[in-house]
Design brief:
Among the domains are: 97 residues, 2-Layer Sandwich (Uridine Diphospho-n-acetylenolpyruvylglucosamine Reductase, domain 2), CATH 3.30.43.10; 118 residues, 2-Layer Sandwich (Uridine Diphospho-n-acetylenolpyruvylglucosamine Reductase, domain 3), CATH 3.30.465; 110 residues, Alpha-Beta Plaits, CATH 3.30.70.3450. The longest helix has 18 residues. The protein is an alpha+beta fold. It is globular.
Length: 497
């Protein structure tokens, strides 16, 4: 088990028996778990190297129960960690050892679909893919499509500002959510955003999206739906070396072609995916790009011809255009299954999430290879190349003493490299506990202080998901690799979390 909480910053004195008694009064029967065996499935999220048992697990089935739980925890000063499907890859849903793990899994209903206005209102526990499945009879779909879309929940997508393979053209979650209803730590029910294109006042929807459960607990979400494109073309382009493939990504966008999706995989990822799903990938290629174009059939053919000619000039030695819908699905199946496929070739892997400018892609891939050699650990690359969102997978064996520590250190170096070239430490997975030290590298003191001020405006007691996403300045000073001057703490009126 990895110890991640700094108790001096996030210590709480909780009367467990008083908390359990209050929760029993607030929740319906069978909506509370208190024994270790029942709570064990909630000890981690998708980043399973970080584990921590909660004090109790609450599974409310109504908004009123969520409000009652939060009012009780506010009164008793008990931390609360909200959890969706538990697929987060940054330990964002890691329980607090002195807190309530608040699961929204029973909020799993699609409340309405308005096909004329092209929107859907759903509860936070609804699976991402289920929204598109429900909208399909109307010729509509929900665009953001994380690789975990078959299991991840829309509430978690909002919390982490999830993306997916089609975010290059259609945007992240923040670009596809119109409004949310959430419960504050004091139990108040508020709606942010609007079903209109714009609404007056501060744009708090943008603040909530990607806030990692630190500002409120979401209980329903209104999302935009898009019409299914009339036609799609999917092609695969192989390259003899990784840097040429990286340069080709920038070349495609520079030519004015904006694909629906543009993904990249290196040779180890290609081989793992091919062995796993038999997608028809060229296993001898150093790297492949998977590109999807969508739109009007007449325009699409012209764009496809231009793209094929461009890829050839950019150095591709193997261009394959899918001839049938089944072949299109096969090309994407390999990419969607890349993470579990890599899991078959290593006892463990550590998935990193950073974003860089596209023009620096080839350079960063080269420098990541140098870091891989320096640390003596294999790094497999599969990522959203079109928007520069990297997902290097560092292979390791958690049974070897010290190997995970070295893996974490290598992951941190890769994230710091992303910041160095003008990027950011996360593109869609969030910060959670995983990247909290690298936040000190990316943001100077003034920005971190403002983050804490926003947190305090929503959650004055600092009870919602404490210790995640935003580091204290004292932590940054101890980390010693950031912009903080003298390790000064925030203004005394701003609580420390």
């Amino acid at each position: 088990m990895v110890s991640v909480y700094r108790q001096e910053d996030h210590a709480f004195e909780v009367d467990r028996e008083a908390l359990i008694q209050g929760l029993r009064e607030a929740l319906a029967a069978d909506n509370l778990l208190i024994d270790d065996e029942s709570m064990r499935p909630f000890e981690c999220d998708g980043l399973s190297a970080y584990r921590q048992m909660p004090l109790v697990v609450a599974l409310p089935s109504s908004i009123e129960e969520v409000q009652a739980v939060l009012r009780l925890c506010s009164r008793l000063r008990v931390p609360v960690v909200a959890r969706g499907a538990g697929t987060s890859l940054s330990a964002g849903a890691l329980p607090h050892p002195q807190g309530v793990l608040l699961s929204l899994s029973r909020f799993n209903q699609i409340l309405s679909i308005d096909d004329r206005r092209r929107l859907a209102k759903v509860q936070p526990g609804v699976r991402n893919l289920a929204i598109s499945e429900a909208a399909a009879p109307y010729g509509l779909y929900y665009a953001p499509d994380p690789s975990s879309q078959i299991t991840c929940s829309i509430g978690g997508n909002v919390a982490e500002n999830a993306g997916g393979v089609h975010c290059l053209k259609y945007g992240l979650t923040v670009h596809n959510v119109l409004s949310v209803t959430m419960v504050t730590m004091e139990g108040e029910l508020v709606t942010l955003g609007s079903e209109a294109l714009d609404s007056p006042g501060y744009d708090l929807m943008a603040a909530i999206t990607g806030s990692e459960g630190m500002l409120g607990v979401i209980v329903d979400v209104t999302v935009k739906l898009l019409p299914q494109p009339p036609a799609r073309e999917v092609l695969l382009a192989g390259f003899a070396d990784v840097e040429t493939a990286g340069n080709a990504v920038a070349g495609i966008i520079a030519a004015g072609i904006i694909p629906g999706g543009l993904e990249m995989m290196d040779n180890p990822a290609i081989r793992a995916a091919e062995d796993f799903v038999h997608a028809g990938y060229p296993v001898d290629a150093a790297a492949i790009l998977i590109c999807e174009l969508d739109g009007n059939p007449v325009e699409l053919q012209d764009q496809l011809d231009k793209l094929c000619a461009l890829l050839e000039r950019l150095g591709s030695n193997d261009i394959r255009v899918a001839k049938t819908p089944e072949e299109q699905a096969s090309f994407w199946a390999g990419r969607k299954a890349a993470f579990p496929a890599v899991g078959r070739i290593s006892p463990d892997y550590y998935c990193i999430d950073g974003t860089i400018p596209r023009k620096r892609l080839a350079e960063v891939l080269r420098r990541m290879q140098e870091l891989s050699e320096e640390y003596g650990q294999r790094v497999v690359n599969v990522f959203h190349a079109g928007d520069g969102n990297l997902h290097p997978l560092v292979l390791y064996d958690g049974n070897v003493p010290g190997e995970f520590d070295r893996t974490e250190e290598l992951g941190g170096k890769i994230l710091e490299l992303c910041v160095e070239v003008g990027g950011t430490v996360t593109g869609e997975h969030g910060v959670g506990m995983e990247k909290i030290n690298q936040m000190c590298v990316q943001f100077p003191e003034a920005e971190i202080t403002q983050f804490h001020a926003l947190k305090a405006a929503f959650d004055p007691q600092g009870l919602l998901n404490p210790g995640k996403a935003i580091p204290t300045l004292s932590r940054c000073a101890e980390f010693g690799a950031m912009h903080v001057h003298g390790g000064q703490l925030p203004h005394p009126d701003i609580p420390r979390f």
